[in-house]
Amino acid sequence: MDILFIDDNHQLFQVLKDNFSYVGHFLFYAGNTEKAFSVLEQEDIDVILLDVKLGNENGVETLEKLKVSFPCIPVIMITGYATVEAAVRAMKLGAFDFVSKPIDFNTLCTIIDSATEQANKKKEQEESGVELAGAHNQMHSRNAEYCSVLRRAKQLAASDITILIIGENGTGKEGLAEYIYKHSNRSGESFIKINCAAFPESLLDNELFGHEKGAYTGASSEYRGVFEQADGGTLLLDEIGDMPRTLQAKILRVLQNQEVRRIGGNQTRKINVRFLASTNKDLPAMVQEGTFREDLFYRLNGGLLHIPPLRKRKEDLEDLIDRLLHTIGEHSDDGTKHLSEDVLSVFRSYHWPGNIRELKNALLYASTICQNDEIMLEDLPPGIELNGLYMQNSLSPVQQKEKELIQNVLLKTGNNKSEAAKYLNLSRNTLYLKLKKYGIA
Fold first, then answer.
1. CATH of the domain at 6
2. How far, in Å, CA of 275 to CA of 233, rounded?
3. Minimum mean pLDDT among 98-102, 337-341, 355-359, 371-375: which range?
4. Cα angle value 158/188/278 (rounded, 5°)
5. Are 41 and 73 contacting, i.e. CB atoms less than 8 angstroms apart?
6. Which of these, 96, 117, 242, 358, has the minimum number of CB atoms within 10 Å of its CB?
7. Higher-pLDDT residue of 374, 87
């Protein structure tokens, strides 16, 4: 992996470079923005490490420029002078994460791995031209339980009651929240969403409530939090089960009184917001454990909607497959593809732990890999298997040879995927797809 370190501290670069070399990564260095762009124009960089305090330059402003010219490269901000305002601005501009000095190298490596994994998934989606989010927004079902959920959602949408949506990851909680919003009397107003798990506690507090100018060091202007931004409209508190307990009491007061106070402010501001919340957590169990406030749970639970997982609504599987393949085909030069009977049999028997999101990603992957109109077993991503077997037995002699060649080249290059891709005369994205296809770690 090729990493660019943008910082005016050359000594820190040398330390990091030595550490990264041990784990098979190469670190490039740039002491300012101009040199950084020079490196980026010449090298195929996978991830950027950027210091907020970049000598006489502002690292956040550098981030803004990077995201315009190189939007697909994940950027991790590093600083010893973190302020809440700088962190919030950096995250909003597209920074993947925010790490404070002194740097814990193992933590940094974990974040880098997450950043590159997410970037690769995003790249696969963009190359297919398909926007996965909302691809199944047509809310209809053959499953009696889910039909009941949709009917209740439509009825509850007409009121201003707070609704709690519970379901496993990938079941479509955000899509159901949008369905409620579109059928509400606030559909002409704003619909704001905030992921409560995406921010550390200090930043989430600021993002929710906002701050007054001068509230803390670096707060050079006032900021309206999402509660104020959603005034008159609807606010979805996504992943509410991941909200720190210290913030739960503040949220409860907002729900009860419909008023907020910015950080550093004395004035209480009235708001008029319709609240929706969603989670994949077992909130009643968390209440028993003491990790979620009982009074907040009952306040959120004005109307409870529980989305069944895909494995319990297999009646909808083929309709979902047809709609998703049609959407993928509309954005592909190869047109709409269809599943072979073997693949359909695998899909029917598979338990889909990632639910509709996993189904969408599997179909997108298979459509990208497939060279014909019919998606075959060998086109499926590793993991979508019948009884965990089929992939090894389904490889043709040519595919087996290709797999062995890739493994040998990776050994020869010390698992450096950029070098391996050059040696094999493949783009890095194509190499990543083949690694997934053949289950090569």
1. 3.40.50.2300
2. 9
3. 98-102
4. 60
5. no
6. 117
7. 374
pLDDT tops 70 at residue 277: yes
Q: In whole angstroms, what is the distance from residue 159 CA to residue 275 CA?
A: 11
State which residues form the domain around 316. 312-437
- My answer on whether 91 and 174 are in the same domain is no
User: What angle do the packed helices 355-369 and 317-330 form, to 10 degrees?
Assistant: 50
Closest to 195 in 3D by CA, of 173, 171, 219, 217: 173
| Residue 299 belongs to some domain of the structure | yes
**Is the CB of residue 48 less than 8 Å from the CB of residue 75?**
yes
* Residue 137 within a domain: no
Would you state the pLDDT for residue 229? 93
146 is a domain residue: no
CB count within 10 Å of CB 340 equals 15
Same structural domain for residues 283 and 164? Answer: yes
What gap in Å lies between CA 274 and CA 279, rounded to an integer?
A: 17
Highest mean pLDDT (candidates 116-130, 154-168, 213-227): 154-168
